[in-house]
Amino acid sequence: MNLTEQLKALNEFDLADLDLDNMGSWPNALKATVMVLLFLLLLGAGFYWHIEDLNKRLAGVEHEEQSLRQDFEKKAFEAANLDAYKAQLAAMEERFGALVAQLPSETEVPGLLEDITDKGELNGLSIKRIDLLDEQAETFYVELPIAIEAVGSYHDLGAFISGMAGLPRIVTLHDFEIILSDGAGPMLDMSIQAKTYRYREVDDGV
């Protein structure tokens, strides 16, 4: 059967007579048309899923590109400012060294206690007690609390507190308590806790 006859048979075929269970009885032109439509449908579906997969991969590559670009920009900025970072690091190390130098070592603590006593007596105070309390270990340093009890006038106490700031070592003052002295004259009893610090070494057993 030639093409003309097939087309004529297709035109004369009544779709109402279409038997889905017996496709072999369909005209060849109809079977070819259905096959072409199925082929195009499968081709379109496959193309769609392939394109969808490519789009997902493209989105992933674009995201990775953006991340790499940001990482590159960050590293380029750091590289361009490397000399400035080195200068800042050197300055920080210098400042850190200067601060550590202000922290007494274990062998210098007795001398610090003498400095505090001398500072009190120089300002007219009577030192009743100055004791080194138990050390308190922190992450990077060791805290050395010192209990101080002294008697003196209001101005003497003020001069002593101000003079503590002039010590060559870092000393902070805490827990003030000032009451009238039982002795004669306008004297005051002061109880205060001074704290100094030393750098905690890696092998420090505290």
Name a few traits of the molecule.
5 strands, 5 helices, Alpha-Beta Plaits, 2 domains, 52% helix, alpha+beta
How would you describe what is shown here?
By secondary structure, this protein is of the alpha+beta class. It has 2 domains: 1-80; 104-199, Alpha-Beta Plaits (2-Layer Sandwich), CATH 3.30.70.60. The chain has 5 helices and 5 strands. The chain has helices spanning 3-12, 28-80, 82-101, 109-122, 154-164, and strands at residues 126-132, 136-137, 141-152, 171-180, 188-199. Strands 1, 2, 3, 4 and 5 form a 5-stranded antiparallel β-sheet that branches. The protein is rod-shaped. The N and C termini lie far apart (105 Å).
The overall pLDDT, averaged over residues, is 78
How many beta-strand segments?
5
The CATH class of the largest domain is identified as Alpha Beta
Q: Tell me the series of helices and strands, N- to C-terminal.
A: HHHHEEEHEE
Major sheet: size, sense and barrel closure?
A: 5 strands, antiparallel
Give the percentage of residues in beta strands: 15-25%
Sheet/helix structural class: alpha+beta
Portion of residues in helices? 40-55%
Number of domains: 2
Number of helices, counting only DSSP H or I runs of 4 residues or more? 5
Over all CA atoms, what is the radius of gyration?
46 Å
- Multimeric organization: single chain
3D shape: rod-shaped
CATH architecture of the largest domain: 2-Layer Sandwich
Cα-to-Cα separation, first versus last residue: 105 Å
CATH level 3 topology of the largest domain = Alpha-Beta Plaits
